[in-house]
Amino acid sequence: MSDANIAPQHQFLTVGEGAAAREIAYIARPAAGDKAGPTLVWLSGYRSDMSGSKAVELDRMAEETGLACIRLDYSGHGISGGEFRDGTISRWLEEAMAVVLHLNPERIVVVGSSMGGWIALRLAQELATKTGAPKLEGMVLIAPAPDFTEVLIEPNLTEKEKTSLAERGFFEEHSEYSPEPNIYTRALIEDGRDNRVLTGMIETGCPVHVLQGMKDPDVPYTHAMTLIEHLPADDVVLTFIRDGDHRLSRPQDIERMLAAVKSFAS
Length: 266
Prior knowledge:
By secondary structure, the protein is of the alpha/beta class. It has one domain (3-146, 204-264): Alpha/Beta hydrolase fold, catalytic domain (Rossmann fold). Helices cover 33% and strands 22% of the residues. It contains 8 helices and 10 strands. The chain has helices spanning 53-65, 89-103, 115-127, 148-153, 159-168, 186-194, 221-229, 251-264; strands spanning 10-15, 22-29, 39-43, 69-72, 107-113, 135-142, 170-173, 182-185, 208-213, 236-241. The strands form 2 sheets. An 8-stranded mixed β-sheet has the order 1-2-4-3-5-6-9-10, sandwiched between helices.
């Protein structure tokens, strides 16, 4: 039996030092034998983790095709350590970078969902500055939400939410996907300004495929169109799914995701 057919176990990597240290959980599926394809890297969305349906199906595809696959839980998510309320884009990006550089595959295809799409774009920027870092061969972004704190949250804050941010440092919002409310902190919003990507040309250095539902209540499809305007140097495909929601987790949506990944992973 090849290594790729053995269900890999989660491992932990310590990221940060001192009081900022946290244990980040990840699962690394090895490639089968001498399979030469790129390693797939999954980046989850806000409050999502590596046990979600899209992440699991990506790993299943990796197993079937013999490709390596990396999944991780950001701090405060899934089985990773750390407090969710301490989370920021910079912090979660640092964790994704740490896991990728720790495993250090030669080539990668990054698949980012929602906030994971923002982190994927920042990951591309950071990898480009590091000598000997994995080569990014493709990127699949599912309902990507770059700059969502500034573009989608801040302009729509109510007076009550503004007051809560000022007085408590966070505000809560009803979640359609969980009985627990979404929590957005002042630190997350302020840090988001330092990680903006929709401020000029984004150079990923690889082909990009964006999948976007037109009935997405969280990230409007016009946001995907704005992102495309900032990717003039890349080979970009934008697929609108007319009846698609934000999660894009239906069987037909997952098939579209896997087909996009396969186009980069040959």
